[in-house]
From TrEMBL:
Presence of the UniProt keyword Nuclease in the record: no
Gene Ontology CC terms, in alphabetical order: 6-phosphofructokinase complex
Role according to the record: Catalyzes the phosphorylation of D-fructose 6-phosphate to fructose 1,6-bisphosphate by ATP, the first committing step of glycolysis.
Positions annotated to bind ATP: 11, 72-73, 102-105
GO MF term list: 6-phosphofructokinase activity; AMP binding; ATP binding; fructose-6-phosphate binding; identical protein binding; metal ion binding; monosaccharide binding
Native organism: Alkalibacterium gilvum
Entry protein name: ATP-dependent 6-phosphofructokinase
NCBIfam families: PFKA_ATP, PRK03202.1
Similarity section: Belongs to the phosphofructokinase type A (PFKA) family. ATP-dependent PFK group I subfamily. Prokaryotic clade 'B1' sub-subfamily.
Location relative to the cell: Cytoplasm
Enzyme Commission code: 2.7.1.11
SUPFAM superfamilies per record: Phosphofructokinase
Subunit structure: Homotetramer.
Length: 320
């Protein structure tokens, strides 16, 4: 394989640029050409493709977001859209494709592979919700961004007798809330993977006040419900002086951490090695600090992402 492509798809994540850089630099090292696809699968179908050089990825490792841009393109779920994409890849002489993104991106990569065009998936999402890998690109940066916000909120919380509900991203996964909640010393963490009783949450706040606590911080994963709804449920039980903060898209931005930069670089280089061997339909992952390759279809249909619930239990034991 002498000419490969790379695209980013779905939500942006800090470290995507580092992964693109690694794909380009590793490919050039292996005497391969690299073409970048702008705007994900939408750009692929439109033929928005350009050759990437070493200079194009210079000074990119520290930048958040993705310089190849991203876009939602549900039409790529159809065979018609997939075949149009393959037409463009053939027009540019591209023989394999690195797809950086989440499960929707993986489905696009798997569809292309089924049509005979080899693709390799690289996990890039702040939600850390991809099965088959312990960590995804962007997750570490995001939990540090959330942690900084939580530390600032705790500063003001100590000045008021209030309950603060902090809504964080994560889609249907609770990893961001879980890790940032433990790291910040949050009194309670509410995630989709664990059932909760709002009366029990209220009782925990009361017990904390009886112990002399003047405030309470609750980290809420968006996959459970939105922060305002949660606050209204609490207020229906008692007046806890609830304040809601929705961190929103600030969690996606910013310069990636060292861990995300290194992880993205390793993932990107590994993806090139797989394509160089002429293989496709696989995705790169990290399992107990070891890099692994898995069939994309296993990741999508046979494996299940599970957060580290030992952290949830730990927080219950040490938060109050």
């Amino acid at each position: 394989m002498k000419r490969i492509g790379v695209l980013t798809s779905g939500g942006d994540a800090p470290g995507m640029n580092a992964a693109i850089r690694a794909v380009v630099r590793k490919a050039l090292y292996e005497d391969m050409e690299v073409y970048g696809v702008n705007y994900g699968f939408a750009g692929l179908v439109a033929g928005d493709i350009r050759k990437l050089t070493r200079r194009d990825v210079g000074d990119m490792i520290q930048r958040g977001g993705t310089f190849l841009y991203s876009a939602r393109y549900p039409q790529f779920a159809t065979e018609e859209g997939q075949l149009k994409g393959i037409e463009q890849l053939k027009r540019f002489g591209i023989e394999g494709l690195v797809v950086i993104g989440g499960d929707g991106s993986y489905r696009g990569a798997y569809a292309l592979t089924k049509h005979g065009f080899p693709c390799v998936g690289v996990p890039g999402t702040i939600d850390n919700d991809i099965a088959g890998t312990d960590y995804t690109i962007g997750f570490d940066t995001t939990i540090n961004t959330v942690l900084e916000a939580l530390d600032r909120i705790r500063d003001t919380a100590t000045s008021h007798i209030r309950t603060f509900v902090i809504e964080v991203m994560g889609r249907d996964a609770g990893d961001i809330a879980l890790w940032a909640g433990v790291a910040s010393g949050a009194e309670q963490i509410i995630i989709p993977e664990k059932d909760f009783d709002i009366t029990e949450v209220a009782e925990n706040i009361r017990r904390g006040r009886e112990k002399g606590k003047k405030h309470s911080i609750i980290v809420l994963a968006e996959g459970v419900m939105d922060g305002q709804e949660f606050a209204e449920k609490l207020d229906s039980i008692d007046n806890f002086h609830v304040r809601v903060t929705v961190l929103g898209h600030v969690q996606r931005g910013g310069s990636p951490t060292a861990r995300d930069r290194v992880l993205a670089s390793q993932f990107g280089a590994k993806a090139v090695e797989v394509l160089k061997d002429g293989r496709g339909g696989v995705c790169i992952g990290l399992d107990n600090e070891k890099f692994v390759e898995r069939e994309i279809i296993d990741t999508l249909d046979n494996l299940e992402h599970k957060p580290n619930l030992d952290l949830y239990k730990l927080n219950e034991e040490i938060s109050n």
